[in-house]
Amino acid sequence: MHKLNSFSRVAEREYALSTGSLNLLYYDLPKDFHDEYRSYDAPRLCTILKGTKSVSVNQSQSFQYNRDQFVLLPPNSNIYMKMPEYTKALVYEFDEQMIEGVSQRVADTLEVDSPTALESQSFAVNSIDKRIDKLHTRMQEILREQEACMDFLIDLTGQELVFELLRNNTCQSIISNHRSHPISKAIRIMNSPMGLKMTLAQVAEEVGLSQSSFSQKFKAATQLSPKQYLTQVRLQSSKQSLNKLSVTDAAYEAGYDNISHYIRLFKNAYGLTPKQYQRSLIHGSH
Predict the structure, then answer these.
(1) What pLDDT, in 10s, does the model give residues 200-209?
(2) Whole-model pTM?
(3) Residue (of 254, 255, 230) closest to 242 by Cα position
(4) CA-CA distance, 32 to 220, in Å (whole number)?
(5) List of domains in the chain
(6) What separation in angstroms does the CA of 260 have from each of 19, 185, 232, 266, 276?
């Protein structure tokens, strides 16, 4: 399995072991490594194979956890991490269809609640109990031994992990309740290629809210207005595109028709014009 030495979203997409229902991310990080980390549009179960992490989730007070604990992150979380020592970590990213499938099959047994509003700062830090430890160990065996029908076995073990998380009320609210919440849905839309080119009025309509209600609920959940958030997403998307596209094409792909407006926003955000940023990439590669 490929080792990730940074939190680059591009590297995560390229090197995650993906079955279509579950992404597995294996991080190999040196002592004193620190950076911002995100959970994007799916819940992430973060475990440590070796070492320790010092983390702050959605501006929470910083705390440390080790291989005897896990952290469960809701989608669209922002985390600051530092490694006090050399650290290896395995992260499970659960697809919505896997969560939905398990939830439906066990709803009567576990009394899985209907989705409700989830505070944007919610996350869980728990000790790894015997049942989760057994599944976590089994997953490592599958990866290490490259077993036949590997994708099937990974998905099967992943489903059992989702089941165990659903048994915990806090974890259940994180992996289940976000799914149908309109703001979570709006964030998923805004982060999609289609959403980058949508107006905020169109996003509000997609999630079934009036523009005023959408703006109010969005800011309450994220501490940003929809406009501020969409601007951040668009600029980040364009920044990633600038290593392969022209400034005009990168702006268009990120939803900007007015190039002058785009250049002004980019410089305000990053201190460089898009062209200057492109040049810095070229010089940095030499």
Answers:
(1) 999 999 888 9
(2) 0.65
(3) 254
(4) 34
(5) 3-175 (2.60.120.810), 182-284 (1.10.10.60)
(6) 42, 31, 17, 10, 15
